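User: Watch each token:
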Amino acid sequence: MIRLLLLLACLAAPALAQDDCPEAPDHRAALDSIIADIQSATGEGEARQLSNGLWELWTDAPDARAQELLDRGMALREQYAFLEARDVLDRLVAYCPDYAEGYNQRAFASFLRRDFDAALWDLNRALEIDPRHVAALSGKALTLMGLGREAEAQETLRAALELNPWLAERSLLEEPPGEPL
């Protein structure tokens, strides 16, 4: 009986392995290069164009299945179908638990629903995976503001602006007491 169970487990292993999400593409070098270019940009228009390159890398999902879930979740969010978007993005993060953009997009859907606690949890997870995810950092700052946690929000916003000083959210930065901007 034990041999039969072991045999069945060995036969099932390849089928189960096909349900595993592969690692996300390693775009660290490209991300570092784009962030450096953004930091040396001479204007907001140039920085915005460079930021589009960040989004191209962040939204490059680990495989076709993950890409379809990400694209579907983002499309639903854009249609204001936030609960449906969350359902699809739930499936993405269950399938690819180490893919930061899945959490970032699910956080965005939660944020738009004003479910700031859920958004914050997802943003923290995205930042655990990719601490230099500028959009997750700025999203976390906005989420903390939504929760009334202004000091933490300002600290997080400063971290985001260190990576991209051209973020639109820079207008929300408050001058710390005794420190001119």
